[in-house]
Design a protein that fits this description.
By secondary structure, the chain is α/β, with parallel strands linked by helices. Helix content is 39%, strand content 13%.
Length: 1427
C-alpha cells in the first residue's frame, strides 16, 4: 500500500510528504506489476522464474522491489544477479545481504541486522543490566540476528549474554508445533532458573506470539523483575490484525530502524484518515498480478484481504521505508534520463544494467535526498545507516509508542513527555533524555521465603504448600511454583521436588502423570523405550525388531533376516525370498538379501531364484554379482538367462589369470584360453604377443639348426676316429643320461604339482624335449592355432628328422663318401633312444584327460580347450595318437626287445655281428653281461612316461608311482652296474636319486584332490608295510615248491668222452644255452661229486644227449649215465660225430672193457653188466643226429639245433640266430684245424671273443679264406695244441697270412689250448730240418721250409695265454677276457676299424672268385709238411 501511494504521488508529482519528488525534472510515469511470494523462498523463486521465463514481460522488467522477508530476498537475489537485474528491499535486514561479492545487485532502504542488534545490546547495557538471556529460533533470519547479537555482546565485557536456541516449526515464523512447544517450555524454564529476568526474544509472526504466550503462562512476562526486548519481529506482525493480542506484549520494548522523517507524522495522520475509505483497484479490479489476473482472484495472492487490511492496516516505520524505496527508483530514473552529459533517454529504453549502474552511482556521487523517512543516502554496501527507535507496546494502543531513540552522533536519548509502560503495568512519564525512567524492572527474581523440599510459596496464603501428585517443584532455590511433571515422567505422591522418569520400556506424552507403569503405557510390539523418561516409544528402525511388549531395545535382525519397515515385531527371513540367501545383520530391505560368499544367484525351472553353490573353479564374491574366474580356470557362459556355466581347467594360472567370465590373458582366445589369436605366439607370463618378422625367423632357425645337427651327425659317423677311450665313453654315456634326465623332467612337468620357481622355469625348458614347438613360435607359421595341426606337426618331427638324415647319407653316397648302411641305422637308433620319453609323452597327450570341475566333461591336460571324446578335434587327435603309439612307444620297444632277446644268439654268429653293428647304440654303452639293460632302461622310461596319463585322475599317486619307477630302475642299475665305466654308473645313480629327491620335496606342492581317492591312497601307503610279511610268505612258498616240484633241474645232460668230445661238449652247451636258453649239465661246470652223477641223470634230467664217439660207450661213467637214463625212462639222444655208430658186436663182451675195480664201482652204484648190455641194445635202435667235426661253425649249429629240437626244446624262429659266414673279420683264429677237438676249441674261442669284443671273428680253416678275410684283419689268434706244428693245413695258413701281410704285419696272439698242457716247444733240430728240407714249389713255393721255419719262430716268440675249453665256465670266460685284452687295436661294435692293405692286392676278378666259391671248394690242400 505504501508503494502504491508512492507511485501515485510520483505520477502526480505530489511532493507534500517527500520533497525529493519536487526535484524530478524528467517526465515519466511509474508502472508496476505485483507478484505475491507467499512469504517464503520457494514462492519467491517460483514467481521470479515465471516472470523471467516470459520474454515479453522479461524485456519490460527493469527493477524488482521487495520482497520484504530476508530469506526470500536471499533466494531471489541470487537469480536476479545472474540476469543483472537490480533489486531493492525495504525490510530485509539480514546481515548476509551486505556481502556484495555474493549479492552484488541488492540494495535496501533499511539498516542491516548487525547494526540493529549492536544498538539493541548496547541499549541493554545502558539500562545497567549485567546479564541477559537471548532466545531465538533457528530459522535463517532469526539465527542471523542471534549471531549478530552474540557478536555485539562479545565486544561488551560488562554484559553476560546466554543464548538459547529453539527449533523453528516452519518458514516465515510459523506457529510453534506441539513437539517444539515442549522444547520452548524447557528453554523458558532454563531461563527462569538462570536468575536473569532480562530476555531478548528474536522471533517473528506466529512463533513470536507463541513464545510470549508460553512465557506469560510461566509467569515470566508481567511478573516482578521481568523485561522482554525484541526487534522488528515483534513490531506488529505477531499481532496479525488481532487487537486482543496487544495486551500480551504490554511492556515489551523493541528496536527498529528509524524511518520517520519530518513529514512522517503528517503522512501517518493522513493514512489514518484515508485508510477506511481507500479504494484498492490494484487488488480488486485491475489485472496487475502475474499472468494478467486480478490479484484477489489469483490462486496464490495473500497480500491484501479486503475487510481486514483496509481497516486494520497500520502505518509503521516500514511504511516509510517502502515509500522511500519507490522514490529512490524515481530519483535514479530521473538521473538516468537526464544523463551525465546531457543526453536524455526514455524510461522504456533504460536497461537493467543501466538501472544497476544508476543505483550504484547514488553512493559514488554522494547523492542525498529527503523523503518520508528523512534524509536518504547509501553507503558502499548499498544500504543505509539509519537512526534507531525504541518502541514500547502499551495497552489498547496501536501502533506501539516511541519512547527512545539512537543515532550515531548522539547515542541513546529518551523521548521526554512520552509515557512508558513497564511489564508489571506500571506507567511512568519520561522526564529526562538521559536518565532511565523510574520503575525499570530489576532483572532479577524478588526474594521469597525458602520452602521445604517439595513445597512452593503461595502468595495468596503467604505460606509454603506441597505440590500435589503429578507435579513437582520447579527449583529448590526458587520455591515459587509447582510444575506439572513433563511428558515421560510421573509423580505418585504429593510434596515431591522432582518427578520420576518413566522406566525404560514405558513412555507417555501426557504431563502431570501420577503413574507411568500401567500396561497401557508399555511400548507395544515393534517399539521400544531405550532409556527412562521418554515421552513416546520409538518405532523399531528398519533392520531391527521387537517381538515383546515393553521392550527397552529392538534386537538387530540376525544374519539372513531383514526388516524393511519401521515398527516391525519380527524379522523376515531372506530364505523365504531367495533360498540359501543371506544378508548382514540389521538388514533393512529384501534387496539386501544376497547370496553368501561361495554362492551365486541362479534361476530355477519355475523361474524363481536360488543361491546355488559356486562351481569349482569359479569365485563367487557373494551378492548377486556374476561369478568370476579363479586363476587357472576358465568358464563359458552356456546360458546368460539361466546363469549356466561350463568350467574347464586351464593349463596354468598365467594363461587364465582370473576375472570376468570368458576372459583370457592378453592375446589369447578360445576355450580355456588354450590358443593364441591369429598371427600371435605364446610368450612369457601366459600372454600371446603379435608375430613380428623376427619371430618367423625363429622357427626357421629351428629347421636350419635341425638340418645342421643332422649333417654334423652324419659327418661324425663318417669320421674314423681311433679307438675311443674310457674318457670319451664316459662323456657320451653321461650326455645320454643327462638327456634322459631332462626328458624325465618333462614328465615331472606334467604332474599335478605347483612347482615353485626357479624349478618351474627349469621344467618349462624341459618341454622343448617333449616337442613343445611353441618355444619356437610355431603358431606364427600356422593359419590358426589349431591343436590337430600342431599335434600332427609334432608327430611329423621325427619323420622329418629321419628324412633329413636319409638325404644326408644319400648325398654322402653321391659324393663317394658313402657311410655304411649300419651307421645310418645306428644314428637313427641313437635319436630314438634319446627321444623315447619325449615321443611317448607326445603320443599320449590326447589320452591325458583331466576332469573338469563338475566331473561332467574332461579336457586334455596339454590343450584344455579340447573336450575329450566329444570334440571332433579330439577324435582326430586320438586317431593320430593311436598311429603314433603303434609307431613310437610300442614299435620302438618291440623292436628293442626283439633285438635284446636275439642278442646272445646273434653275438656269436658272423652274420649276427654284422647286424649288431647297426645296434651299437643299444649295446655298446653297457657291459657284455648287462647287454639287456638298454631294454630295462627303455621299459623304465615307458613306465615313467605313462604315469601322468594313467594316473591323471589321481594326482596324489603320481608322485608315489614315479618315485617307485625311478627307485626300481635305480636299484636295478645299482645291482647290475651295467655301464662300461664306473664314472658312468655313478653318474646314472646320482642323477636318478636326485630326481627322486626332487619328487619327494615336491610333495607339499602337490595339487591334492578332494577325498574321493583317500581310500586308494591309504591302501597304497599300506603296501610297503605289507611287503614284509608277503616277502616272508613268498620265500616259504618258494622253498616248498622247490621241495615238492618234480620239474627237472637240467633239460639236457651231456654224456661224452673227455678226450674224444670234451671240447665238442663245451661247444654244444654254449650253442644250446645261447639259442634255446637251455639248462645243460656239463661235468666241468656242474659236477661236484662223481657218486651223485647217476642220481642227477635219474632224477634231475629231462634228456640225456650222448656225444657218440668211438670211446664213449667204453667209458665206465658214460655207460653208467646211459643205464641210469634208460632205466628211469629218461630219453636218450645220440649225436653221431663223423658218422660214429653205437656199439653192436662188442655189447656181449662189454665187461672185458673195464677192470674188476671199475665193474665193482658200477655195481656199487647200482649198475649191472646186464643193464649195460640191455641199454646198449636199446641204443642201437635209436636214431642219430649227424655232426661233421671238420665242418663250419654254421654246420655245427645246424646239427646242435636239430638235437635240441629233438629233446623238445623250442624257440621262436625270429629269435633263432644261426651263424653266417662273415664277409670280413678283424680277428682271425686258427690252430690244428685238421684235429676235430682243436677245431672245436677254435669255434669256442670265436664265440666268446665275439661276445667280449663285439667284433666279427672268423676261424680260418683253409688258405683260400686268407685271401677273403685278411683285408680287414688286425689280429691272428693261434691256439697251441699238441702236433700243431705238424699240421700241414695250419702251416700253409700261417705262412700265407704272414707273407701276404709282410708290409703291414698282422699281430699274432697265441693261446695254449691243450687240455693237459701237452704242447711242447720244438727243439732246434725241428727248425734245422725245416730249413734244410726242399719242398715242392706248388705247395709252399721256393724255399718253403726256410720260410715256414721263420713263420714258426715268429709264432712261438709270442707269450701264450691259457685257454682250456674243458675247464669250468667261469674260468674259461676269465681266460678269454685275458686273451681279449691283447686286442688293443680293434674297434668296438659298430666302429669302423683301420683298413689294412698288403703288397699284392687281389684283383676285382680274384676277389669275386673267392667270394663266390662254394664252401666245398674251400678245401685244404693235400701237401704234407715234414714230420
Amino acid at each position: 500500500m505504501a508503494m502504491r501511494i508512492a507511485a501515485s504521488h510520483l505520477n502526480r508529482r505530489d511532493a507534500t510528504f517527500c520533497p525529493a519528488i519536487a526535484s524530478l525534472s524528467s517526465s515519466f510515469q511509474i508502472r508496476y506489476d505485483i507478484i505475491d511470494d507467499n512469504s517464503n523462498a520457494v514462492g519467491a523463486v517460483s514467481a521470479i522464474m515465471g516472470l523471467l521465463s516470459n520474454e515479453s514481460i522479461k524485456s519490460k522488467t527493469k527493477v524488482v522491489l521487495g520482497p520484504n522477508d530476508s530469506g526470500t530476498c536471499k533466494a531471489s537475489s541470487r537469480i536476479l544477479s545472474h540476469f543483472q537485474i537490480p533489486q531493492i528491499s525495504w525490510a530485509a535486514t539480514i546481515t548476509d545481504l551486505s556481502n556484495k561479492q555474493e549479492f552484488p545487485n541488492f540494495f535496501r532502504t533499511v539498516s542491516p541486522d548487525n547494526l540493529v542488534m549492536h544498538v539493541l545490546v548496547s541499549f541493554v547495557v545502558s539500562l545497567h543490566y549485567k546479564e541477559v538471556s537471548l532466545i531465538y529460533f533457528d530459522a535463517p533470519y532469526q539465527s542471523g540476528q542471534a549471531e549478530n547479537a552474540r557478536s555485539a555482546a562479545a565486544s561488551m565485557p560488562e554484559l553476560k549474554l546466554t543464548s538459547y536456541r529453539i527449533a523453528h516449526s516452519g518458514e516465515g515464523g510459523a506457529a510453534i508445533s506441539a513437539k517444539n512447544i515442549i522444547a520452548t517450555r524447557q528453554v523458558l524454564m532454563s531461563v527462569r532458573a538462570s536468575g536473569s529476568r532480562v530476555v531478548i526474544g528474536l522471533a517473528i509472526n506466529e512463533e513470536a506470539y507463541n513464545l510470549w504466550a508460553e512465557a506469560d503462562a510461566l509467569k515470566m512476562m508481567h511478573d516482578q523483575g521481568w523485561l522482554w526486548l525484541g526487534a522488528d519481529g515483534v513490531a506488529g506482525g505477531q499481532i496479525a490484525g488481532r487487537f486482543d493480542r496487544v495486551d500480551l506484549f504490554v511492556g515489551t520494548l523493541f528496536i527498529m530502524s528509524s524511518s520517520r522523517g519530518p513529514h512522517f507524522d503528517s503522512f501517518a495522520a493522513q493514512w489514518k484518515a484515508d485508510m477506511p475509505t481507500t479504494q484498492t483497484p490494484e487488488f480488486s479490479r485491475m489485472p496487475v498480478c502475474y499472468g494478467g489476473k486480478v490479484c484477489q482472484a489469483h490462486l496464490h495472492f495473500s497480500g491484501w484481504i479486503a475487510g481486514r487490511h483496509d481497516k486494520e492496516m497500520l502505518c509503521t516505520s516500514y511504511t516509510a521505508l517502502a515509500y522511500d524505496a519507490m522514490v529512490t527508483l524515481a530519483v535514479v530514473a530521473n538521473k538516468l534520463m537526464i544523463g551525465r552529459h546531457g543526453d536524455s533517454k526514455t524510461l522504456e529504453s533504460l536497461t537493467p544494467k543501466e538501472w544497476l549502474e544508476g543505483l550504484r552511482s547514488l553512493h559514488l556521487d554522494n547523492d542525498t535526498f529527503e523523503c518520508l523517512s528523512g534524509k536518504i543516502s547509501y553507503n558502499a554496501d548499498q544500504e543505509r545507516s539509519l537512526p534507531m527507535t525504541i518502541f514500547n507496546w502499551q495497552p489498547g494502543k496501536l501502533p506501539p509508542q516511541r519512547v527512545a531513540g539512537w543515532s550515531a552522533e548522539h547515542g541513546f536519548s529518551w523521548r521526554v513527555g512520552s509515557d512508558i509502560v513497564w511489564p508489571d503495568g506500571n506507567v511512568v512519564s519520561i522526564v529526562s533524555t538521559e536518565d532511565v525512567p523510574r520503575g525499570l524492572p530489576s532483572g532479577v527474581p524478588p526474594p521469597v521465603p525458602v520452602c521445604p523440599a517439595g513445597n512452593v510459596y503461595n502468595g495468596s496464603v503467604e505460606t509454603c504448600v506441597p505440590c500435589p501428585a503429578g507435579r513437582h517443584v520447579a527449583s529448590n532455590e526458587e520455591a515459587k511454583m509447582c510444575v506439572a511433571c513433563n511428558a515421560g515422567t510421573y509423580q505418585s505422591g504429593a510434596g515431591k521436588s522432582a518427578c520420576t522418569p518413566c522406566p525404560a520400556g514405558y513412555a507417555s506424552s501426557q504431563v502431570g502423570l501420577s503413574d507411568c507403569t500401567v500396561a497401557s503405557l508399555a511400548c507395544a510390539k515393534g517399539s521400544f523405550a531405550s532409556s527412562p523418561g521418554l515421552s513416546s516409544c520409538n518405532l523399531c528402525p528398519r533392520g531391527r525388531a521387537s517381538p515383546t511388549v515393553g521392550s527397552t531395545a529392538c534386537a538387530m535382525c540376525g544374519a539372513g533376516t531383514y526388516s524393511d519397515e519401521k515398527g516391525s515385531s519380527v524379522c523376515k527371513a531372506c530364505n523365504d525370498i531367495v533360498p540359501d540367501s543371506t544378508c548382514s545383520r540389521s538388514a533393512e530391505s529384501s534387496e539386501e538379501c544376497r547370496c553368501p560368499v561361495g554362492r551365486y544367484l541362479r534361476p530355477t525351472p519355475s523361474m524363481s531364484w536360488i543361491c546355488s553353490t559356486c562351481p569349482q573353479g569359479l569365485e563367487c564374491p557373494g551378492g548377486n554379482a556374476t561369478p568370476l574366474h579363479m586363476p587357472g580356470y576358465w568358464a563359458e557362459v552356456l546360458s546368460d538367462k539361466r546363469h549356466e556355466y561350463a568350467v574347464v581347467r586351464c593349463r596354468n594360472s598365467l594363461e587364465c589369470p582370473g576375472g570376468a567370465l570368458s576372459s583370457c590373458q592378453d592375446g589369447r582366445k578360445g576355450r580355456a584360453c588354450s590358443a593364441c589369436k591369429i598371427s600371435h605366439y605364446s610368450a612369457d607370463g601366459g600372454r600371446c604377443e603379435p608375430c613380428q618378422l623376427a619371430d618367423f625367423m625363429q622357427f626357421a632357425s629351428l629347421l636350419i639348426g635341425l638340418l645342421i645337427v643332422v649333417i654334423l651327425l652324419a659327418m661324425c659317423y663318417k669320421l674314423k676316429p681311433k679307438r675311443a677311450g674310457f674318457t670319451l665313453m664316459t662323456l657320451l654315456a653321461t650326455v645320454g643320461q643327462l638327456v634322459t634326465v631332462v626328458q624325465t623332467m618333462s614328465v615331472m612337468q606334467q604332474l599335478s604339482v605347483k612347482w615353485p620357481e626357479p624349478l618351474f622355469s627349469l621344467l618349462s625348458f624341459a618341454r622343448l624335449f617333449a616337442f613343445d614347438l611353441n618355444a619356437f613360435k610355431l603358431s606364427c607359421f600356422l593359419p590358426d592355432d589349431d591343436p590337430v595341426s600342431r599335434f600332427a606337426l609334432q608327430l611329423a618331427f621325427y619323420p622329418i628328422y629321419l628324412t633329413a638324415l636319409g638325404l644326408c647319407f644319400v648325398i654322402l653316397q653321391q659324393l663317394n663318401r658313402s657311410p655304411a648302411r649300419d651307421v645310418f641305422f645306428d644314428a637313427n637308433g641313437q635319436i630314438l633312444l634319446i627321444l623315447y620319453i619325449s615321443l611317448t609323452l607326445l603320443v599320449l597327450l590326447p589320452f591325458q584327460c583331466v576332469s573338469n570341475p563338475g566331473g561332467v566333461t574332461r579336457s586334455m591336460a596339454s590343450d584344455p580347450g579340447v573336450t575329450c571324446w566329444v570334440d571332433p578335434s579330439h577324435q582326430a587327435l586320438v586317431g593320430l595318437a593311436i598311429v603314433g603309439i603303434l609307431a613310437y612307444p610300442i614299435g620302438i620297444l618291440s623292436w628293442i626287445l626283439r633285438i635284446t632277446v636275439q642278442y646272445p644268439a646273434m653275438i656269436h654268429s658272423g652274420f649276427g655281428l654284422m647286424v649288431l653293428r647297426r645296434y651299437r647304440f643299444l649295446f655298446n654303452r653297457f657291459k657284455c653281461e648287462a647287454y639287456h639293460f638298454g631294454s630295462l632302461m627303455l621299459l623304465r622310461n615307458l613306465l615313467a612316461a605313462l604315469v601322468p596319463v594313467a594316473l591323471v585322475g589321481v594326482p596324489s599317486l603320481q608322485l608315489l608311482t614315479l618315485c617307485f619307477v625311478l627307485l626300481v630302475g635305480s636299484a636295478l642299475q645299482n645291482r647290475l652296474w651295467p655301464w662300461r665305466t664306473v664314472a658312468a654308473n655313478r653318474t646314472d645313480l646320482v642323477m636318478t636319486l636326485s630326481m627322486v629327491l626332487c619328487l619327494i620335496a615336491a610333495g607339499p606342492h602337490l595339487e591334492i584332490d578332494s577325498s574321493p581317492h583317500k581310500q586308494l591312497i591309504s591302501f597304497v601307503l599300506l603296501l610297503p608295510l605289507l611287503v614284509v610279511p608277503l616277502a616272508v610268505i613268498g620265500t616259504l612258498l618258494h622253498l616248498i615248491h622247490l621241495r615238492c616240484s618234480s620239474r627237472h633241474q637240467y633239460q639236457i645232460f651231456l654224456c661224452h668222452h673227455k678226450a674224444g668230445a670234451g671240447t665238442l661238449g663245451r661247444l654244444v652247451k654254449m650253442i644250446s644255452v645261447r639259442q634255446f636258453h637251455a639248462n645243460v649239465f656239463y661235468d666241468s661246470d656242474q659236477l661236484e661229486d662223481l657218486d651223485l652223477i647217476f642220481e642227477i641223470v635219474r632224477s634231475h634230467t629231462k634228456a640225456l644227449v650222448v656225444l657218440l664217439t668211438p670211446e664213449v660207450q667204453k667209458r665206465m661213467w658214460c655207460a653208467g649215465e646211459m643205464v641210469s637214463a634208460y632205466e628211469n625212462n629218461v630219453p636218450i639222444l645220440l649225436l653221431s660225430c663223423d658218422g660214429c655208430t653205437a656199439l653192436n658186436s662188442e655189447i656181449e663182451h662189454i665187461e672185458v672193457v673195464w677192470t674188476q675195480d671199475q665193474r665193482n664201482t658200477l655195481i656199487r652204484l647200482g649198475i649191472t653188466m646186464n643193464s649195460v648190455q640191455e641199454t646198449f641194445h636199446h641204443m642201437i635202435k635209436l636214431q642219430t643226429i649227424q655232426i661233421q667235426r671238420q665242418a663250419s661253425l654254421e654246420a655245427h649249429e645246424h646239427s646242435i639245433i636239430q638235437l635240441m629240437q629233438a629233446t623238445g626244446l623250442s624257440t621262436s624262429r625270429r629269435m633263432l640266430q644261426r651263424s653266417r659266414h662273415p664277409r670280413s673279420a678283424e680277428i682271425l683264429i686258427t690252430g690244428a684245424v685238421d684235429n676235430a677237438e682243436a677245431l672245436s676249441a677254435c669255434y669256442i674261442l670265436q664265440i666268446l671273443t665275439q661276445e667280449f669284443t663285439l667284433v666279427e671273428v672268423l676261424v680260418l680253416r683253409s688258405t683260400d679264406e686268407v685271401d677273403s678275410f685278411l683285408v680287414k684283419a688286425v689280429y691272428l689268434v693261434v691256439i697251441l695244441t699238441r702236433d700243431l706244428l705238424r699240421d700241414q693245413t695250419f702251416a700253409k695258413l700261417l705262412l700265407k697270412t704272414l707273407e701276404r701281410r709282410s708290409e703291414d704285419p698282422i699281430e699274432i696272439v697265441t693261446a695254449n689250448g691243450d687240455t693237459n698242457f701237452e704242447f711242447e716247444f720244438p727243439p732246434q733240430e725241428f727248425f734245422t730240418a725245416l730249413d734244410n728240407q726242399v719242398v715242392k714249389s706248388d705247395s709252399l713255393g721256393s724255399k718253403g721250409g726256410e720260410r715256414l721255419s721263420s713263420a714258426y719262430r715268429t709264432l712261438l716268440s709270442v707269450l701264450a695265454l691259457p685257454f682250456l675249453p674243458h675247464c669250468s665256465e667261469g674260468l674259461l670266460e676269465q681266460q678269454v677276457k685275458e686273451i681279449c685284452r691283447r686286442f688293443r687295436n680293434v674297434c668296438g661294435l659298430g666302429k669302423d676299424g683301420k683298413k689294412y692293405s698288403y703288397s699284392r692286392a687281389l684283383t676285382i676278378r680274384e676277389r669275386s672268385e673267392v667270394h663266390h666259391k662254394p664252401p666245398e671248394a674251400l678245401s685244404r690242400p693235400s701237401e704234407e709238411l715234414p714230420q
